[in-house]
Automatic annotation (TrEMBL):
InterPro entries hit by this protein: 6-blade_b-propeller_TolB-like, PA14/GLEYA, PA14_dom, Quinoprot_gluc/sorb_DH_b-prop
Name of the featured protein: PA14 domain-containing protein
Residue ranges, annotated region (Disordered): 593-668
Domain PA14 residues, every copy: 1-138
Top-level taxonomic group: Bacteria
Length: 668
């Protein structure tokens, strides 16, 4: 069975609902369910979950006895069999269920407040006279799982939390129409996307196992007003080694495989690749985690990222089996020569063009990364992930991220960033996430030549965790889905997917931007704040700051976390901007701002009665044609502006300019 433990660091009286997507502090394989101490890895104030399957040999009524300290709950196939919640010593509780032969999903939720810990599961199957511990021979769980853990405090959902405000969104942004693009039976684990001049979409599929290799498919009929019945697919390449990038250049498709760059050629004109030409190779040691992420092209060079080798469990392999991994590289298209652009990366899953035509990369939490982050790539930069032997840039000073992406709060496994070119968020960047799911939006500003900014939740409601996004020729955001065992995939979603989000002209209420100013921030909204919202405005904002301390350990907690006092909150004359002044704002901190309620724009009608400090999300959707959803016409504008934002400010109190909005300096 799989045991996962979450360190809550607060008193508990009953089982709570854990905030979705959090990485556990402990994740391990256990032979049976009979634990009373060190097995949990945490002393007090934690919640654990036990998941797996039970194989039933004989049909009939099965009795179960669950002994726990403190509360617990047993569910089989989603039905509660034993509810033993609340504070108590290690006492038993019993329940029975009628089961058919075969495998059944089994789950135990358990919490410990203080004192001793215990979870023991016994059963009395048909024909048995006494309870015994459920034996290992009938228990199973997922195999081949990378058991990733992360330190730090985990959180339960609170009474003031609502989708998009304290917990992840659940629906589609009302400013977009969601369209499914997969014909019946087509289930791609999308690992790369690019466009042909004729409007066809080229996708690569992952093929992440010994029994399944990567492929390339060409899709027609995906742009414009469409649905799955109008989409056609053609497989044009196969046998690829986990391709994670694809690019169309000068009439040919190129893919980045784990060990090299491959050109796809159709020499006999039948539309299928029959010649796979190796353009370049790069260091590759055979580790499962040595990916070649993304593929950009500009002025005769391809650009992509190489991830490092890791062990099962997430620790960086020491020593690395191949040199110079954890880098952004460029490849000469004509000669295949490989050169190194930047280093100190771990799992740089996403690469894309951003402001000024520069390269931006997302890197995933792990060793030397207490949280995921968005990076601005420049020649010779080092981004703090050390390894043995040293990489080509390890001796260089550390370049700070553009954005820290607080783990499991707004990101977990972020992928390629894309810069929007139209609409209210033109110029801003969006990126998907394999495990947290959906899309997040980043507003960036340049201060003294370096980027910083804010990140906002943007949308959920997609069919799978997002592995790749692409801006299509029709202006839609195309999303490719993926998922695998363990916690690499969005819980409850498919392990494959292909959809698009098309702007529909709805002016949803949202935070448009968050800018650093001397002593605080300026928040800009897409619509004016209501009269009710601006009353006693300063008292309604909630602000926290913290920093991260990278270490060789996997992940890391928030350090020096503080609640900041809002000394003033001044709305502009049109009530679309609010200037926040904060006491105690420090350099080099991540700052989380929670916007106030009620949060209806003025003068439109407000739906419901949202509470101060929470957010009402009106993102319900209904089908309008096969494969398509859109917001209900009668729904009020969604209050997406109350999404918590997470800007990085490096020296918010240091003025370097003149006028009312002097920008901050970078701290060392």
């Amino acid at each position: 069975m799989t045991l996962r433990v979450y360190d809550l660091q607060t008193e508990l009286t009953r089982l709570c609902t854990l905030k979705a997507g959090q990485t556990p502090n402990v994740d391990k394989l256990m032979p049976t369910i009979n634990w009373s101490g060190n097995e949990f890895g945490i002393g007090d104030f934690f919640q654990s979950e036990v998941t797996g399957n039970i194989n039933i040999a004989t049909a009939g009524t099965h009795a179960f006895r669950l002994t726990s300290d403190d509360g617990s709950r047993l569910r089989i196939d989603g039905t509660t069999v034993v509810n033993h919640d609340g504070l108590h010593s290690p006492t038993p509780a019993e329940g029975s269920v009628n089961l058919t032969p075969g495998y059944h999903a089994l789950r135990i939720d358990h919490f410990d407040n203080a004192g001793g810990q215990q979870v023991t599961l016994e059963w009395r199957p048909p024909g048995a006279s006494a309870f015994t511990v459920v034996p290992n021979s009938v228990l199973s769980t997922d195999a081949g799982v990378v058991r990733v853990t992360a330190p730090g405090r985990k959180e339960c959902e609170g009474g003031a939390d609502s989708p998009g405000d304290g917990i992840p969104l659940t629906g589609v942004h009302p400013g977009y129409t969601l369209t499914n693009l997969r014909p019946n039976g087509f289930e791609p684990q999308v690992s790369a996307m690019d466009w042909l001049p004729d409007g066809r979409l080229a996708i690569a599929t992952w093929g992440g196992s010994d029994n399944e290799l990567g492929e390339v498919h060409l899709l027609s009929g995906v742009t414009g007003n469409t649905d799955p019945s109008r989409v056609t697919t053609q497989r044009i390449a196969s046998g690829l080694k986990e391709p994670m990038g694809i690019k169309y250049v000068d009439g040919k498709l190129y893919v980045s495989e784990k060990d090299g760059l491959t050109e796809l050629n159709d020499t006999n004109g039948d539309g299928v690749t029959d010649n796979y030409r190796t353009v370049a190779t790069w260091p590759f040691g055979g580790n499962f985690h040595e990916f070649a992420f993304g593929l950009l092209y500009k002025d005769g060079f391809f650009y992509l990222n190489l991830s490092v080798s890791i062990n099962y469990g997430g620790a960086t392999t020491d020593p690395q089996p191949a040199p110079n991994r954890g880098t952004t590289i460029k490849v000469n298209k004509a000669t295949g020569a490989v050169s190194y652009v930047a280093g100190g990366l771990r799992t740089p899953h996403g690469i894309g063009w951003g402001p000024d035509g520069d390269i931006f990369v997302t890197d995933n939490q792990g060793g030397w990364l207490p949280s995921s982050k968005l990076l601005h790539i420049k020649q010779d930069r080092f981004f703090n992930h050390y390894m043995n032997p040293d990489g080509p840039f390890d001796s260089r000073p550390v370049t700070q991220p553009v954005l820290w992406l607080p783990q499991n709060e707004i990101a977990n496994s972020p992928v390629n960033p894309v810069q929007l070119t139209a609409g209210p968020f033109a110029g801003q960047m969006v990126f998907g996430d394999v495990t947290y799911g959906g899309l997040q939006r980043a507003y960036l500003e340049k201060v003294n030549g370096e980027y910083q900014g804010a990140v906002f939740r943007m949308t959920q409601g997609l069919e799978a965790g997002v592995s790749r996004i692409s801006l299509g020729p029709d202006g839609a955001i195309y999303t490719g889905g993926i998922g695998a065992g363990g916690n690499w995939g969005q819980p409850g979603k498919l392990s494959h997917g292909l959809q698009k989000l098309t702007p529909n002209g709805t002016n949803a209420f949202d935070i448009l931007a968050m800018r650093a100013i001397d002593g605080g921030f300026e928040l800009e909204y897409t619509q004016p704040l209501s009269t009710a919202t601006v009353q006693d405005l300063a008292a309604k904002y909630q602000v926290q700051q913290w920093r991260y301390v990278p270490t060789a350990d996997y992940g890391g907690p928030k350090v020096d976390q503080q609640t900041l006092s809002v000394t003033s909150a001044t709305p502009s004359a049109d009530r679309r901007k609010v200037t926040l002044k904060l006491a105690g704002l420090q350099a080099g901190r991540v700052v989380h701002v929670r916007s106030p309620r009620p949060f209806a724009p003025s003068p439109v009608r407000r739906c419901g009665a949202p509470r101060p400090g929470t957010r009402s999300t009106r993102s319900s959707a209904r089908p309008v044609r096969p494969g398509t959803t859109r917001p209900r016409p009668r729904a009020c504008p969604a209050a997406r502006g109350s999404t918590p934002t997470t800007p990085v400010t490096r020296a918010p109190g240091s003025s370097t300019g003149t006028g009312p909005r002097a920008p901050p300096r970078r701290s060392p």
